[in-house]
Automatic annotation (TrEMBL):
Transmembrane segments: none annotated. GO terms for molecular function: kinase activity. Keywords: Kinase, Transferase. SUPFAM superfamilies: TRAF domain-like. InterPro entries: MATH/TRAF_dom, TRAF-like. This is Inactive serine/threonine-protein kinase fnkC. Residues 1-79, 101-229 form the MATH domain. The keyword Transferase applies.
Length: 238
């Protein structure tokens, strides 16, 4: 198959084909095709298919068979394209050796005055990518009205252009009253991409628990959210 560079990623072409050798003495063709009559799949990483043993050299060069006359032969092919389809994409995965954990602290002030829309932290860098913490003070999805929803997201997912990032991350809300460093810490690993730019939890902490004075999560109408991000690898579509 030629012109494969114009194919979309993951495109597959299913083909029936057979070869012809002309007996130049009799004007007749020897027809050679797959005995199983099975369609062959062509794609960007499999551009050709055929037969390792099409015909023996003895038969091919025997003058009585007429396949080679005056040092010339005539070869033909018949091709029928059965179908084309878009298959899953191949990927090239790169692992980051000695990945570095990056931490970002975000103080969310005037919490009681926040509306239903999401709030976003300033961008921060981890693994050569820009990230942000996304907070829904009134909850989102399954947590709407009852919980705080908290997510980690890429700040510029459109720049990935076919790539994705594998990151380990923790999100937490700090107990400011008791100086507990890690409260409601959650660890997870996910692939971040243009189609999935953020991951997190719709029910991170209940509104009642957050507002309870003795818990120390909300002090002087402010809460402190922390994120730790370690980028372990990237994947790029082939």
């Amino acid at each position: 198959m030629v012109g494969a560079e114009s194919l979309q990623n993951g495109c597959e072409v299913y083909v029936d084909f057979r070869f012809f050798l002309l007996d130049q003495n009799k004007g007749m063709f020897l027809v050679i095709q797959d005995a199983n009559k099975k369609e062959k799949c062509f794609h960007a990483m499999m551009l050709y298919s055929g037969f390792d043993k099409l015909i023996t050299l003895t038969s091919f060069t025997n003058p009585s068979n007429g396949y080679v006359i005056d040092d010339n032969c005539v070869i033909g092919a018949e091709v029928f394209v059965c179908k084309e389809r878009r298959a899953g994409k191949g990927e090239s995965i790169s692992k980051i050796k000695d990945a570095v954990k990056c931490k970002h602290v975000w103080k969310v002030e005037n919490f009681s005055k926040l509306g239903t829309e999401c709030c976003k932290s300033e961008p921060f860098t981890a693994g050569e990518r820009k990230w942000k913490i996304i907070l829904y003070p009134k909850g989102k999805s399954l947590g709407e009205g009852t919980h705080i929803s908290l997510y980690l997201g890429l700040d510029d997912p459109e720049k990935l252009s076919g790539s994705k990032v594998f990151a380990e991350y923790s999100l937490r809300i700090v107990d400011q009253m008791h100086a507990r460093y890690e409260c409601f810490k959650v660890n997870d690993c996910d692939w971040f991409s243009t189609s999935s730019p953020s991951w997190g939890w719709s029910k991170f902490i209940s509104v009642d628990t957050l507002n309870q004075a003795g818990n120390g999560f909300l002090v002087k109408d402010a809460c402190i959210v922390e994120a730790e991000v370690t980028v372990h690898g990237t994947a790029t579509a082939l």
